[in-house]
């Protein structure tokens, strides 16, 4: 095992770590994924034959709050990356935890919103708005959930002896790319579904 | 301590099966892909033979209508997703690191995972025959034919789940290949010194990375329509069947280039070596490949001219479709230019490459015909279209793959395939292919629609249908001769040497088959044809150092476990939630094990 570090991973053609490049390319793929879902939403906009329609159920102040929560999680994520890069592991762990909590809070808002819509008679099968809304925001919520698990795994691993080691900054940085991407997608979704009538 | 999870000690003797199941070596994984892909090629071939047997004479009675629909659908799905793509991925796997002078791909375990997930997708799709019925709505599965109302059986759920999982595998391997080619090149291997095959691989990887998410969304929506009562594609409740067509072809047309570009890359390697000349117009051929990649995303609606898109979209997609013929034509002239004046060695690989250029050109020209909406309207859903796609996919993709098989077999096994038997086999496949698919042009123009399970006598279709069926049996003989050749070759001792063809690219600078670490000394690249450059300039490869301290990633069983988890999720999506939940647990366990497994 001693000779294991003969060819360190960072020795790449472009100088960018392979794993970081993988995340960037993966996010390119994700752009098309959400692009297709958002296109579907826009194509069916106004095509619902029966209600409830968007303006019947959307609670803009509530979702603005959850959007604010998610945006703040991007701030804490930046601070976590800063902490990891400057070897301030306490700051990093605290901010990772804060990001996880904010992410969970956003998911809580979403669960509440889905339940409320259900009580008001909107579900997947009600109309085109229901189908496109739930599939789009549901898959976005799944991405947030995966992100929470991802960050939680990093947090747990960073607590272990020999957990993340020298590469802690890299790991948190890559997770940050994913997290910010999911946030940016939400900004687009929020604007298109909630803000534009 | 650290070796406790997942990692196998180097010293312990492992059974051969276990070694293959836990391998992360790109060459072994490439071999797995090749064997799997070729097996599915035979399965798809059997399906096609049954279809053609049914159509040999009017009012055929070999198959009934239901089974016929399943067979032609599964023939297309098998050939596209489980045969041509995996065989392409097999060569990618095997030759990316060898071509760029790397020890392995960027993510060896992800590479193994891609294979196991692909196998899961293939098994799910194919197993549909044993659980009621296979998908039966054609490979592009147009809505609303695919909706619960018209397809109540499970077949199309196997379609959505199987393709979803196969797509996941392709996405993972494409991410891996893209990062490897960009980031793992040997010293001196600039982008414009990459072998053309690597350029085509890179374009294919990006095509898949950007187009697979679109079909994924469409498959999710179809799955929701069929299982959760949404109405994305059911017109009665406000849905839009044309949306499926758009989403499918935004993926489907780049997919066509995913199938053909690898073979274009193979031919671009074989022809210069066999013509003893550098490739003519390297920059042009690379740029043409890249522009095919870009334009490939802007032509999808030419599959949908008859849906009534309106005048302006028809103009736009007609123009873009004609435009994509230009880079394709550039490549054809480059291959001809490469052979022109060359001292051509007529090996079996050369035969297949020349056949590729000729047959692909025919398929390309009949393709450009469909760029005209008015012509396309006449050809839509006729056998003319079947002729066209088989000229590009069989005449193109498959001919390229056979060329690659004969060209690289000695590198992969150390043994040369028999040239005489190979040439006999080539003529069977070449003549059989043309006998099968050329008459389909006539049948299409005579009005025979595709996907009919039988036809009446007296429509003027009898002769050419019979000829086409004879052609298929000739192809079967040709493929059987290839298999005989492979088995015969494995019975003889290695005879190939390191460089039987006098190759130009780096894989010929190492032994046949290459050692696990590929190169004893990482090569330094000074030219586009590094092996030729070193030969002509008297540069000798550095001697093998006395003590090799090359660290290779250890084998791991977590890719297999993770693959099984994904298979369980897929099976659960077709049966019960409990199995899905079990799959999620397995995936989560495998991810943790994966993350904590020491790789050094």
List keywords for this structure.
heterodimer, A: 197 residues, mainly alpha, Four Helix Bundle (Hemerythrin (Met), subunit A), 6 helices, 75% helix, 0% strand, elongated, B: 600 residues, Cytochrome C Oxidase, Chain A, 2 domains, 17 helices, 65% helix
Topology-level CATH name of the largest domain in chain B: Cytochrome C Oxidase, Chain A
The CATH architecture of chain A comes to Up-down Bundle
How large is the radius of gyration of chain B?
24 Å
Would you count the extended β strands of chain A for me? 0
Low-confidence stretches of chain B: 1-9
Q: Averaged pLDDT of chain A, please? A: 90
> What's the assembly state of these chains?
heterodimer
Plain-language structure description:
The complex is a heterodimer of chains A (197) and B (600). Chain A has a single domain (14-46, 68-195), classed as Four Helix Bundle (Hemerythrin (Met), subunit A). Chain A has 197 residues and is mainly α. The radius of gyration of chain A is 20 Å and the shape is elongated. Chain A contains six helices and no strands. Chain B is built from 17 helices and no strands. In chain B, helix 3 (65-100) crosses helix 12 (383-413) and helix 7 packs antiparallel against helix 10.
Brief account:
The complex is a heterodimer of chains A (197) and B (600). Chain A has helices at 18-43, 54-57, 60-85, 89-119, 128-159, 168-195. With 197 residues, chain A is mainly α.
């Amino acid at each position: 095992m001693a000779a294991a570090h003969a060819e360190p991973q960072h020795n790449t053609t472009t100088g960018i770590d392979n794993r970081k490049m993988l995340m960037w390319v993966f996010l390119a793929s994700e752009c098309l994924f959400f692009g297709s879902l958002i296109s579907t939403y826009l194509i069916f906009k106004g095509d619902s034959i029966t209600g409830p329609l968007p303006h019947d159920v959307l609670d803009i102040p509530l979702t603005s709050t959850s959007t604010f929560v998610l945006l703040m999680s991007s701030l804490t994520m930046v601070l976590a990356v800063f902490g990891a890069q400057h070897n301030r592991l306490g700051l990093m762990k605290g901010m990772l935890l804060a990001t996880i909590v904010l992410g969970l809070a956003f998911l809580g808002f979403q669960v509440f919103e889905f339940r409320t819509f259900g009580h008001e008679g909107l579900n997947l099968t009600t109309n085109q708005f229901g189908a496109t809304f739930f599939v789009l925001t549901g898959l976005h919520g799944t991405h947030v959930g995966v992100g929470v698990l991802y960050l939680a795994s990093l947090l747990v691993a960073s607590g272990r002896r020999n957990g993340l080691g020298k590469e802690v900054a890299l790991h948190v940085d890559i997770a940050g790319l994913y997290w910010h991407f999911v946030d940016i997608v939400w900004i687009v979704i929020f604007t298109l579904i909630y803000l534009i009538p | 301590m650290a070796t406790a999870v997942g990692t196998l000690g180097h010293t312990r003797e492992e059974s051969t099966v276990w070694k293959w199941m836990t391998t992360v070596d790109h060459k072994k994984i490439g071999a797995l892909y090749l064997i799997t892909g070729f097996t599915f090629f035979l399965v798809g071939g059997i399906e096609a033979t049954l279809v053609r047997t049914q159509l040999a004479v009017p009012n055929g009675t070999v198959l009934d209508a239901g089974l016929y629909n399943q067979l032609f659908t599964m023939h297309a799905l098998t050939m596209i997703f489980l045969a041509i793509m995996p065989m392409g991925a097999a060569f990618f796997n095997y030759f990316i690191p060898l071509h760029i002078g790397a020890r392995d791909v960027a993510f060896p375990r992800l590479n193994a995972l891609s294979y196991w997930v692909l196998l899961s997708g293939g098994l799910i799709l194919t197993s549909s025959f044993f659980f009621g019925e296979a998908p039966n709505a054609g490979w592009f599965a147009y809505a609303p034919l695919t909706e619960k109302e018209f397809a109540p059986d499970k077949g199309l759920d196997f379609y959505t789940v199987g393709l979803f999982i196969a797509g996941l595998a392709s996405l993972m391997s494409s991410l891996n290949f893209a990062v490897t080619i960009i980031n793992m090149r040997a010293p001196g291997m600039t982008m414009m010194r990459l072998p053309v095959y690597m350029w085509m691989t890179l374009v294919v990887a990006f095509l898949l990375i950007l187009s697979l998410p679109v079909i994924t969304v469409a498959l999710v929506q179809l799955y929701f329509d069929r299982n959760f009562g949404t109405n994305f594609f059911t017109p009665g409740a406000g849905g839009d069947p044309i949306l499926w067509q758009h989403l499918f072809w935004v993926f489907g047309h780049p997919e066509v280039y995913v199938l053909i570009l690898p073979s274009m890359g193979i031919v671009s390697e074989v022809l210069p070596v066999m013509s003893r000349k550098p490739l003519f117009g390297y920059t042009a051929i690379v740029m043409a490949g890249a522009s095919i990649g870009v334009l490939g995303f802007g032509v999808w609606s030419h599959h949908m001219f008859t849906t009534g898109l309106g005048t302006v979209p028809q103009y736009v997609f007609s123009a873009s479709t004609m435009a994509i013929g230009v880079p394709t034509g550039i490549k054809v002239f480059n291959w001809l230019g490469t052979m022109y004046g060359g001292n051509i060695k007529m090996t079996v690989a050369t035969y297949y490459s020349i056949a590729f250029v000729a047959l692909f050109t025919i398929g390309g020209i009949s393709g450009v015909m469909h760029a005209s909406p008015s012509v396309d309207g006449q050809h839509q859903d006729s056998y003319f279209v079947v002729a066209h796609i088989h000229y590009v996919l069989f005449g193109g993709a498959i001919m390229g793959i056979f060329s690659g098989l004969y060209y690289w077999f000695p590198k992969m096994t150390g043994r040369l395939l028999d040239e005489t038997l190979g040439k006999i086999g080539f003529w069977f496949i070449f003549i059989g292919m043309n006998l099968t698919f050329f008459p389909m042009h006539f049948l299409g123009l005579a009005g025979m629609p595709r996907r009919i399970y039988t036809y009446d006598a007296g429509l003027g279709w009898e002769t050419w249908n019979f000829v086409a069926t004879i052609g298929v049996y000739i192809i079967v003989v040709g493929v059987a001769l290839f298999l005989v050749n492979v088995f015969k070759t494995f019975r003889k001792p290695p005879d190939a040497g390191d460089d039987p063809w006098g190759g130009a690219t780096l894989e010929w600078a190492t032994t046949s088959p290459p050692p696990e670490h590929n190169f004893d000394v990482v090569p330094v690249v000074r030219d586009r044809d590094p092996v030729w450059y070193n030969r002509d300039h008297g540069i000798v490869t550095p001697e093998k150092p006395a003590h090799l301290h090359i660290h290779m990633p250890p084998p791991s069983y977590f890719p297999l476990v993770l693959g099984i988890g994904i298979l369980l999720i897929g099976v659960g999506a077709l049966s019960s939630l409990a199995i899905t939940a079990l799959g999620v647990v397995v995936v989560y366990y495998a991810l943790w094990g994966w993350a904590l497994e020491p790789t050094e």
